[in-house]
Amino acid sequence: MMMPFKRQALVEFSAVESADRCVSCGAKEPVYIAGQQAYFNYSTSKRITRPTNADNPNSGNKVLLLSIQNPLYPITTDVLYTVCNPIGSVLRIVIFKRNGIQAMVEFESVQCAQKAKAALNGADIYAGCCTLKIEYARPTRLNVIKNDNESWDYTKPYLVRRGRSKSPF
């Protein structure tokens, strides 16, 4: 399980002996990933469990949590809509900057969300950067109060764009 914003990952092996070999080999010979030395150690957990079955395809959730790694270009609702909507009909998008850049995308159906996760997880929005790591989100519906670069409800195009509303006078 990737924890990109902690710069860590958990790996579950089928046997303890395999984990032992990984840790001992990593201690003997340095391992580099993207130019950074990786360190291997044992976790206090015996199994990897994702919160609220976040990776369970039967979770029945049509909202995905997208974590954008190495965001060298701006990420807006327009960018995410362009990437996600061809795979499955997007209803709402909310972008937030907590632990880097993350977004929640609500699809029309669970099947659309499953297709999008399968097609886009690990993909780059732009070549070599803005890599998507996708999990099922906890919320089952997004609440959008305004349409702008950080949130958009495609079912309510009349929501006012902040800073762009036109006065009739």
Which homologous superfamily in CATH is the superfamily of the largest domain? RRM (RNA recognition motif) domain
CATH topology tier name of the largest domain: Alpha-Beta Plaits
Average pLDDT rating:
86
- Range of strand content: 25-35%
What's the CATH class of the largest domain, please?
Answer: Alpha Beta
* Content-based structural category: alpha+beta
Can you tell me the CATH architecture of the largest domain? 2-Layer Sandwich
Identify the strand order in the major beta sheet. 8-9-5-7-6-10
List the quaternary state of the chains.
single chain
| Amount of helix | 10-25%
Q: Low-confidence stretches at least 5 residues in length (pLDDT < 50)?
A: 163-169
What is the count of β-strands?
A: 10
Termini Cα gap:
55 Å
Shape descriptor reads elongated
Query: From the alpha-carbon coordinates, what is the Rg to the nearest angstrom?
Result: 19 Å
Tell me about the biggest sheet? 6 strands, antiparallel
InterPro entries: Nucleotide-bd_a/b_plait_sf, PTBP1-like_RRM2, RBD_domain_sf, RRM_dom
Protein name: Heteroous nuclear ribonucleoprotein L like
Keywords: Repeat, RNA-binding
GO molecular function: RNA binding
Polypeptide structure, described:
The chain has 169 residues and is an alpha+beta fold. The protein folds into two domains: 8-49, no CATH class; 63-153, 2-Layer Sandwich (Alpha-Beta Plaits), CATH 3.30.70. 19% of the residues lie in helices and 27% in strands. The strands form three sheets. It has a six-stranded antiparallel beta sheet with strand order 8-9-5-7-6-10, covered by helices on one side. It is elongated and about 60 Å long. The N and C termini lie far apart (55 Å). Mean pLDDT is 86; it is low at 163-169. Pfam families: RRM_8 (PF11835). This is Heteroous nuclear ribonucleoprotein L like. InterPro entries: Nucleotide-bd_a/b_plait_sf, PTBP1-like_RRM2, RBD_domain_sf, RRM_dom.
